[in-house]
TrEMBL record:
Cofactor requirement: Mg(2+)
Source taxonomy: Bacteria, Bacillati, Bacillota, Bacilli, Bacillales
Record keywords: ATP-binding, Kinase, Lipid biosynthesis, Lipid metabolism, Magnesium, Metal-binding, Nucleotide-binding, Phospholipid biosynthesis, Phospholipid metabolism, Transferase
Gene Ontology cellular component terms for the protein in this record: plasma membrane
Pfam families xref list: DAGK_cat, YegS_C
GO biological process: phospholipid biosynthetic process
Sequence similarity: Belongs to the diacylglycerol/lipid kinase family.
A single MF term (Gene Ontology): ATP-dependent diacylglycerol kinase activity
Name of the featured protein: Diacylglycerol kinase
Annotated DAGKc domain residues: 1-132
Organism listed in the record: Paenibacillus albiflavus
UniProt cross-references to Gene3D superfamilies, sorted A to Z: 2.60.200.40, Probable inorganic polyphosphate/atp-NAD kinase, domain 1
Amino acid sequence: MVKRARLIYNPTSGREEMRRRLSDILQRLESHGLETSTHATTGEGDATLAAADAVDRGFDIIIAAGGDGTLNEVINGMAGKEHRPSLGILPLGTTNDFARALAIPRNWEAACDLIIAGHTKSIDIGKVGSKYFVNIVGGGSFTELTYEVPSKLKTMLGQLAYYMKGLEKLPRLKPIELHLKSDEVQLDEEVMLFLISNSNSVGGFEKLAPSASLSDGLFEVTVLLKCNLAEFIRIATLALRGEHLNDPRIVQFHSKRIEITSPDYVQLNFDGELGGILPCTVENLPDHLNIFVDPSGTSTYGGRGLFAAINKNLQS
């Protein structure tokens, strides 16, 4: 049976690779029974409206093509609906943390083949007020990086743009006063940053929240307590190797619901985009979305070595 898919894509994502690959992607999907129409986003919030419209029009599949920002908008258009189609991801943006966490290939052909093969996994998502996220909510030093870098600079320089912005911000590091409450922990401290992670891939760090899971109904919460610049750099270096958890300035725990307030003005990062300001309450919604994934769990983010199940499906 032919299925109807709605491909929502950001034409400026990932050095505009999606714009160049669009006809090839459509041909690959159509040749394997997915009747696919498209929507090119035109600005902030447009992908959310397009996804909500696609749900209302009864599409069987929604495909988000771009980076984490595009994916976040698409999920915000779907998550509040009673009926939610399966979601495919083409990770063609500058940052693709969520795709990395699910081992969705960066290679566009391999990512299309995941959708064609049709195997889905139910995942948890997070909710803050009327907004949703799939990967992280964070605040404090450096969490502003992803939405402060101009889109033109990201298109030209890719990930390097974030490193440049990070170096620029280093001398201006300062703590915030934070009050955090969950069933497991109450924290009233000056902190450098906090991250509420739904997956183990955060800002390109795969070991920052090593035990975060997309299917356990919990977030992994990481808080870096107040420190000076030298200590910040030292702990960041440890985090690259996954050796930060035993540092006395790191607080880490798991919870399904976290209340956070601060007397300071603290912006929130939702999946790499500006998501509002504190205070907030973060809630976990278990098994809320179905995502197309590799059933063996061995597909690499780089797209090398597609798993046998897909090859068998395509050849049949």
